[in-house]
Amino acid sequence: MSANYTLIILFIAACLDYLIGDPWDWPHPVKFLGWIITHYTKQIFKLTKPYQDNSHVFILRLSGILLAIALVLGSGIISWLIIQALRINFTQFPLLTVIIESILLASCFAGKSLSMAAKEVLQLVRSDNLIQARQKLSMYVGRDTENLSISEIFRAIFETVT
Q1: I want to staple 12 with a disulfide (CB 3.0 to 4.6 A). Which of 6, 77, 102, 151 is the partner?
Q2: What are the extents of the domains in the chain?
Q3: What is the pLDDT of residues 100-135, one digit of tens each?
Q4: Is 107 exposed, middle or buried (0-12, 13-18, 19+ CB in 10 A)?
Q5: Helices (H) and strands (E) in the chain, counts
């Protein structure tokens, strides 16, 4: 594939993200990764619960490292395989290939969706509804939001959209 083809995919993906964003009810790779993390974490905590010594901490850390590596490699390999399968059949289905590659790339941007999420949390903070703001923020960040101050909420929003 040429550089022009890559630029076309990038442009279409950016337009899709800007105009549509990630529809909330669509399946999204990050939702799937979150599901994997949740279930993996529960299993690891069940397995390590009997151990209360230092080996418990080591097992948790090692499990976290292995999970991170598996998620990055797994999502990269799956994406690469999808794109390779599409490109093998490019001459038969060029439009389908462009559409799917553009959607896959647009799902990586998430600019509009994260911007909308940040605005929702900011609106809740402005209306002095910190409990709901923390709950809403917890849907987008990986940290515990239950006791965040206003400045910490702002920092988490900023980190999310950048």
Answers
A1: 102
A2: 3-109, 114-161
A3: 999 989 888 878 888 888 999 999 999 998 999 999
A4: buried
A5: 7, 0
